[in-house]
Design a protein that fits this description.
The chain is mainly α. It is built from 10 helices and no strands.
Length: 261
């Protein structure tokens, strides 16, 4: 994978962001998704980003493993499993469409942008409406879980839905981080064989390749630096200002993907 200097710059920044997001600044993860899509295109970015997330997830579990609420986790997982097959089918269809067109599918890049905008909107509504948006009933949990399954498959962007779910469970700070860490480690690991199967079904548009894995290895130190930086920044940043900046940056990047895609 021969990269331009600006692609290396964006990939390194995204790796740093992924690490920070997993150990103390969860909302920041929304910015990494459109950054990677800008650098590598929609489909390729999803497969390249997944191992980066898994590396950071391992550190998050190491930091917060004792605080997980497994009852909250097990309540959501069946619903997430409903969304994953839908995401798989959509990814398969988009891959076939890309191959038929004979060029990278701009529609997929735009879809990533739209998913990010939906996630930003959910976080904004959470700030304005407070607890009225969080899921509590069985049906709402199913909707959030299946939505998270689709969003994570198409764009690695289920973080806001998980945050709203845990808010509905009234999880404390430590329980939030621990449950979140285990949830995304298990979820992202489960996506690896599915991504590889998609590579067999649509070999002209694989999600995970030898080149992308080599890039992941090169970026691993930046992820680790991000992990440590996120833990250090967690208690030192003004959270309201930080959240506002994250939403603005993520929305701007998403609009760029939609318009440019």
């Amino acid at each position: 994978m021969a990269l331009e200097w600006w692609q290396w710059l964006i990939a390194g920044l995204a790796a740093l962001i992924v690490g920070c997001a997993k150990t103390g600044l969860p909302g920041l993860g929304l910015v990494a998704v459109p950054l990677m899509a800008v650098a590598f295109g929609g489909r390729a970015s999803v497969g390249t980003l997944l191992p980066m997330l898994i590396i950071a997830d391992c550190f998050a579990v190491l930091f917060y493993r004792r605080h997980a609420r497994w009852d909250h986790l097990l309540r959501l997982l069946p619903s997430v499993c409903l969304g994953l097959p839908l995401g798989f089918i959509l990814m398969w269809w988009l891959g076939l469409r890309e191959v038929a067109a004979g060029e990278p599918d701009a529609v997929f890049t735009s879809i990533i942008g739209m998913v990010i905008l939906v996630m930003v909107a959910l976080l904004c509504l959470r700030r304005w409406w407070g607890d009225r948006l969080v899921p509590r009933g069985r049906l709402s949990v199913v909707l959030y879980g299946s939505g998270a399954g689709i969003a994570t498959f198409l764009a690695n962007a289920a973080g806001p839905m998980m945050a709203l779910y845990l808010a509905g469970m009234r999880a404390k700070k430590e329980a939030f981080m621990g449950t979140n860490a285990w949830f995304f480690l298990l979820l992202n690991l489960s996506k690896v064989p599915l991504f590889l199967i998609l590579g067999l079904l649509v070999p002209q548009a694989p999600l995970i390749t030898g080149s992308s894995l080599r890039l992941n290895v090169i970026l691993a130190p930046a992820i680790i630096v991000g992990v440590l930086l996120g833990a250090w920044l967690f208690t030192r940043l003004n959270q309201r200002l930080f959240d506002a900046l994250v939403l603005i940056l993520a929305a701007a990047a998403a609009v760029h993907l939609i318009v440019g895609g």
